[in-house]
Amino acid sequence: MRRQVPLILCFLFGIVMMLVEFSPHPVSEGLRAEVIEWDLIIGPFALVIGVVTLVHTHWIRIRRRVEHWQYSYLVFIGMIVMVAFGLPMGPKNGGNELPKWLEWFKWFKGPENEVFVWFFDNVQVPMEATMFSLLAFFIASASYRAFRARTLEATLLLAAAVIVMIGNAPIGDVLWNELSPVGENIPSTARQWILDNPNLSSRRGIILGVSLGVISQSIRIIFGIERSYLGGGD
Amino acid sequence: MLEKLMSIDRRIVFILVAIAVIIPTLLNVRFPITVSQPTRSVYDFIDELPPDSTILMAFDYGPSSLAELEPMAAAVLRHCFSKNVRVIGMTLLNVGARLGDRVMSQTSAEMGAVDGEDYVFLGFRPGGISVILGMGTAIDSVFSADYRGKPLSEIPMMQDVKNYDHIALVLDLASSGTPSTWIAYINTKYKQQVAAGVTGVMVSELYPFIQSGQLVGLMPGLLGAAEYETLIDTPEKATAGMSVQSFVHLLIFVLVVVGNVAFFIQRRRAQ
Predict the structure, then answer these.
(1) What is the pTM of this model?
(2) Tell me, what's the ipTM?
């Protein structure tokens, strides 16, 4: 029974929602709007599951003293601090409707919540931006090592990558226009041609392949053939 | 010697990259930007909108993509405010809420746009596809209030904007797969015009949607932001950033050429 009920629900909602998508009738439109409302309510529960999983994972890491377990404390500190200051700035922005005894504390005022904003602007933003910036260094090093014209395929990849890279940077056109007697802005034109033609064709093939895969997987799930989402490896 | 040229220590590469970033930044070098057609299409679409039209901007990016997408958002907002095109901001990512609010507040202050009349920021709602579809029925069924808690019914510019029927363009500024979700659910179902501004690494995967007409235009990463700044004749962060990026690209080009020349000489000798 524990397995049959989810399978029946999945089948019913899968078939009904698929039919609703193709029908402009007011009844089906109303049904669709209603189900979207349900989905909007269910959505935030995923957040709760995410938090519970995160806490559980890091609690286990600390208890078992796995390698670098000390960093798990940082996860808890970060989460507690941000939740403590962030909760008053919830989705309803109810910070403006706080009880009077909290109003003196101006930090708890909706999006103006200064501590929350300060942590976000001065901790989270620089940290994430720094992590991403490091990619420039690693990509430079990796390109230098990986782009070797060893085979015909590798040479084609190398040529396309170099053209797109130089065409993407304004200095490509500047140097070409200064040094070459032939044509203007050839690097950026060549880059655009690569994106518009070989790239577009191959991407379309990938999108079609992925879409067919998604359709077949959806049919398997709707008809209960694919049941891994129920857990238990069945 | 050839061996050394083929395997330069990565720490030396890192130092060269740092120099290629720092020196042009200090010297404030600027290069002219050539505008690509996909970016021009976004610009032309917004430029041709009549005053008091409304566009929706989705700030679907986080701090890691801030450097590429925030200058893009600022450039488009400047263009909209200068043309009296009204802007509704929102995000499908929780981290995008503060970033969207920040860029809208800063740009509106700079351009003299008024909150609630020229723009409104709705913030974040969880749900993804449900949020996108819900706004097709009624925006206030998903966002009952703006980011600062003001009910939509009390916001002047939202009096005549109820759903996608009253929005001329949805522009998704994204660092993940959200543009294809917007296209699949609102272009197909509501015939809503959609444009996108994405990080450099995502650009290639969206080209099929330009050719099929499902995307009005596409702004490619920092280059797209610099192109838009060129189009509105306001060179800012993106234009400066692209000049710096030029030197790094040139450095990588030189390193790749050096590595390959050394590789070919060594292979010929071995033969």
Answers:
(1) 0.83
(2) 0.80
